[in-house]
């Protein structure tokens, strides 16, 4: 990644993090934020594929712990973790669990927020198609079909547009 892209990415990350002011959150939102923080803290200690599955399971539980989730705290960090879980060096069980997390996030965001944040979530997901196992590909295709292909066409152009 070039220096310019890193700078733009850092600006994007800080803009997303500034959307939610922790001092203005109610107690349920603070608890939701804390559960996501706790879940993300476990990612750094993942050494084996079973650790990744455990992390992803905890993340799903944390994401579903909020009844009115309309935002994903630390979305850039979660996106980075998920893209690492989609690595070709990890087994298909980790890929399946990561797809479950993507589906959970896409449900929580809804189509309008997903369309706005597509450049955050989709790039980590697309490379999986090239090396996914036969058991994982149908789930990936279903996820893309259900959530991504249903987005407005003007947002989908971002995926297909080639950079100069």
TrEMBL record:
Domain spans labelled DOP1 N-terminal: 26-161
Q: Which UniProt keywords apply?
A: Protein transport, Transport
A Pfam family hit: Dopey_N
The record ties this protein, via Gene3D superfamilies, to: Leucine-rich Repeat Variant
Which domain of life does the protein's organism represent?
Answer: Eukaryota
Gene Ontology BP term (one)? Golgi to endosome transport
A GO CC term? cytosol
Q: Which InterPro entries match?
A: ARM-like (IPR011989), ARM-type_fold (IPR016024), DOP1 (IPR040314), DOP1_N (IPR007249)
Family stated for the protein in its record: Belongs to the DOP1 family.
Can you name this protein? DOP1 N-terminal domain-containing protein
> Source species, please?
Saccharomycopsis crataegensis
